[in-house]
Design goal:
This protein has seven helices and four strands. Keywords: Arsenical resistance. InterPro entries: Phosphatase-like_N, Ptyr_pPase, Ptyr_pPase_sf. This is Arsenate reductase ArsC.
């Protein structure tokens, strides 16, 4: 497969990222497969103007994709619900939802987020209001929606991205109608954040509810 050309220094950095991920996924993926996912992840991020910390962000994105692929193929058995939040730019709503669910779930849910047309960076007002809750989004970055992220999810929650998200049988799809933080100040984004927080808490209660014992 042909990939986006990179300079020699970046090529070495991406090769090292592939080495680290191959070690992390030892026994799950061949080195060649990991390298291909790393290169493809770099291509995907390069298409959305990621210009800084490219090797690090590529490695983080490739790690998410590798895990999703492994879950989908059954080579990693997930013992936790997997939730994917999708909005258009992955710069506001889906980022806040993912951070809030990860925070409240404390590891009991696997959380991902993506955008159908990712922005260049996270909305600064979103970073500001999430910091008020002690949640740091300053190191996060918008990620493109991938097929494997949808396939690996048990629940897919869309937020204003229309029909861009592929539909696979066996998934639970929810569409949350929320205002878009794009172009809004902190006061307005704070209201959206709190709306998302309430929905996330409700979702978490559903996902972690213990099944009732019919024989009790």
């Amino acid at each position: 497969m042909t990939h986006v050309p990179v300079d020699p220094a970046l090529e070495v950095a991406l090769d090292h990222a592939a080495d680290r991920l191959h070690e992390e996924f030892a026994g799950v993926f061949a080195r060649e497969t990991v390298a291909e996912v790393v290169a493809d992840s770099h291509d995907a991020l390069a298409g959305y103007s990621v210009a800084t910390y490219v090797p690090l962000l590529t490695q983080r994105f490739a790690r998410e994709r590798l895990r999703a692929i492994a879950v989908t193929k059954g080579t990693i058995m997930s013992d936790r619900p997997e939730v994917l939040f999708v909005c258009v730019h992955n710069a506001g709503r889906s980022q806040m939802a993912a951070a809030l669910l990860a925070h409240h779930a404390q590891g009991s849910v696997v959380v991902r987020s993506a955008g159908s047309a990712p922005a260049d960076s996270i909305n600064p007002a979103v970073v500001e209001v999430m910091a008020e809750l002690g949640l740091d989004l300053s190191q996060e970055f918008p990620k493109p929606l991938t097929t494997e992220s949808v396939q690996a999810a048990d629940v897919v929650i869309t937020m204003g991205c229309g029909d861009a998200c592929p539909i696979f049988p066996g998934k639970r799809y929810l569409d949350w109608q929320l205002d878009d933080p794009a172009g809004q100040g902190a006061d307005a984004v704070r209201v959206i954040r709190d709306d998302i927080d309430g929905r996330v808490r409700g979702l978490l209660a559903e996902l972690t509810a213990q099944p009732s014992d019919s024989n009790a």
